[in-house]
Amino acid sequence: MSKNIPLVKDIGENGLISIIRAKVAGGVRLPVEIGDDAFVAGISKNYSLAVTTDILVENTHFRRDWSSPRDIGYKAIAVNISDLAAMGDCKPRYCLVGLALPGNTPVDFVKKLYTGMNESARKWNAKICGGDTVKSEKDIVISITLIGEIKNGAAITRGGAQVGDYIAVTGTFGDSAGGLFILKNKVKINAASRRYLLKKHCLPEPRLDASRRLAKTGTITGMIDSSDGLAASLRCIGEESCVGARIDLDRVPVSPHLRHLCRTGTPPLISTVLTGGEEYELVFTFPASAAAAVKKALPEATVIGTITAGREIKYYVKEQSYPLPSSEFRHFA
Amino acid sequence: MSKNIPLVKDIGENGLISIIRAKVAGGVRLPVEIGDDAFVAGISKNYSLAVTTDILVENTHFRRDWSSPRDIGYKAIAVNISDLAAMGDCKPRYCLVGLALPGNTPVDFVKKLYTGMNESARKWNAKICGGDTVKSEKDIVISITLIGEIKNGAAITRGGAQVGDYIAVTGTFGDSAGGLFILKNKVKINAASRRYLLKKHCLPEPRLDASRRLAKTGTITGMIDSSDGLAASLRCIGEESCVGARIDLDRVPVSPHLRHLCRTGTPPLISTVLTGGEEYELVFTFPASAAAAVKKALPEATVIGTITAGREIKYYVKEQSYPLPSSEFRHFA
């Protein structure tokens, strides 16, 4: 606590979300409320809206000397598509863009930002339909709201994992954090790995198609994207489903490029893999009996552990328990 | 132009919106697209979504030394309700709140902000369902997205005014700008007027009910809220409807409190009335033949002029043409 007055940085994002949830509780109950990747609200006999919003702040979420305006725009939409993907078989439809800009922002930045946003939106069949542009004093702030359509009752939340379920993931972990490390530090690394890791950081691809294929199996009990890192995603599933997990670190997929970057121990491989944020893979659970169906739907998915009773997320290397590195990404810190 | 590189402040909000509209053009055509108070998109056989977003930046749109956190929250939702009201008989439903906060923001600020937002949302039957909280470096930024429901084909845009239509308004004009003037300057004014003008600035009431009553007449051809001031609203209707207007300044409603504030000529009454922003009245048009129906539906509305051919908005005092004061509010200036 700073001087007795509690500040946002003292309680962090989770503390804030608890306060906000309590404040807005009550009223009509929705199928999925505040605290998941998106909220879901019925709109017709067959369909619900799935809606998500993300705020991106210059120098916190992007830097103009690290990313082109087009890439910043592309990623801003992509990370919201990822939130919809985390809800299951969801069709992105409409997108709103709020922009706060200092007066000295070049017009060209805005044009190229929209080129990237438009490209990204169209790729996933969403349309930019509205927005707001205002003046800020210092920071460029990009606020994206994405509205998708999902069949009634089809939303997959973070809260449905059952003891005994398998935990699986798409893609590899730590690559985006590896890319960020390269941007922040002087690093000796081969050109292909540099290119690969930077692309994973600057131009992430949400797993909308993988999510659709998984949802169609009708067996997925819990799902989340890994935008705050793998460990945070697992903790969310654990908390919302009132369960624990056992993760076999040897099974967590890691790219050869990240191994190459981490070959000297800096950055450390395991904590990069577990706590690196801005990753947009899917982390999902399903009963053991559905393993064959899931494998058929998404052969490239990797099982990394199982849901356990109790409330702890435990990491293992072989049969050795491994303490979670404490460098976990924290907003407001 | 600043040093050959065009900046956002050189082209202003209208220039930006033109660029953005061109960038996102194409794809599925919606009933109401970017550039109106809200966009409207079909979702079922009977209903469409009306969606609007607003970004509020500390020190541009609100100041913590001028407004309580509760009032800031209340107004943040209210101004978005006003955008939905400007679309006609629209039911606010779901609300998303994006918050960018410096780490040193007191937790208490966030709590009270949500108290105000919640109060405001519930008053108009909307529910805060989701959002995002992130860290900013300096500015507090509040991004609100509001989703409403409107009958298919019922949206009233800025683009339907016809030559000969009457132009009418709700409420009085310039009060919010008067309140802002009091906050910015040492002003001698009686307590009742001070209270009234400050309230109009800090706690505006959107005209949702008036809009419903007007829409039910089925005669409203064009509508907009006056968030950027009366003159800007009239210019928008003119541009989007490809018409001009004749406004009788004597008929524009002015509160006795604003007259009292402006009694010495500072601030000047007419430019405060015409160009003062952050006002959330309705400006709307209808054929002369509907005058009786409109008067019955909304007795407190005031006719202030008529739509004319040509593209100019002309202001008159008696039969004397009056030049528009140039102090019009400009974003990014």
Give your account of this protein's structure.
The structure is a homodimer of 333-residue chains. The first copy, chain A, has 333 residues and is an alpha+beta fold. Chain A folds into two domains: 8-151, 60s Ribosomal Protein L30, Chain: A, CATH 3.30.1330; 166-322, PurM-like C-terminal domain (Phosphoribosyl-aminoimidazole Synthetase, Chain A, domain 2), CATH 3.90.650.10. The first copy, chain A, contains ten helices and twelve strands. Chain A has helices at residues 8-24, 69-85, 107-123, 175-184, 191-202, 208-216, 230-241, 256-261, 269-275, 291-297; strands at residues 39-42, 47-57, 90-101, 127-135, 141-151, 166-169, 222-225, 244-248, 282-286, 302-308, 313-317, 320-322. The longest helix of chain A has 17 residues, at 8-24. At the A-B interface, helix 1, strand 2, strand 3, helix 3 and strand 4 of A face helix 1, strand 2, strand 3, helix 3 and strand 4 of B.
List SSEs of chain A in N-to-C order.
Answer: HEEHEHEEEHHHEHEHHEHEEE
Helical region count of chain A? 10
What does the average pLDDT of chain A come to? 91
Low-pLDDT windows of residues of chain A: none
Percent helix of chain A, as a range, is 25-40%
Summarize the structure.
Two copies of one chain form a homodimer. Chain A has 333 residues and is of the alpha+beta class. In chain A, 34% of the residues lie in helices and 24% in strands.
What is this structure's SSE topology?
The structure is a homodimer of 333-residue chains.
Chain A: H1 8-24, E1 39-42, E2 47-57, H2 69-85, E3 90-101, H3 107-123, E4 127-135, E5 141-151, E6 166-169, H4 175-184, H5 191-202, H6 208-216, E7 222-225, H7 230-241, E8 244-248, H8 256-261, H9 269-275, E9 282-286, H10 291-297, E10 302-308, E11 313-317, E12 320-322
Parallel strand pairs in A: 3-4, 8-11
Antiparallel strand pairs in A: 1-2, 2-5, 3-5, 6-9, 6-10, 7-9, 8-10, 11-12
